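Quick log. Single chain, no ligands specified.
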Amino acid sequence: MPIGGGLKERVVVTPDRETLEKVAKAASGTFYDAPDARRLERVYEDLGSRIGRKREDREITAAFAGAGGLLALVAAGLSMAWFRRPL
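-> predicted structure:
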């Protein structure tokens, strides 16, 4: 809430556990309650075992070569249009 002089008042709002549980259920997710640091660490440990990364190498040379070829064709076309001669 704004206060005079451009300052703002801090308003503490407690989470609505029931609504959050319904949202998690509707999204096929899981509701976690972590009122203290120890329980929050357990939540992160649980999530850490579910969330991960997979590193995968991909070859992108063909895409760059294709883009370069396309730019060369555009340059040749513009050269012929502007100067009536190829590159």
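The chain has a mean pLDDT of 86.
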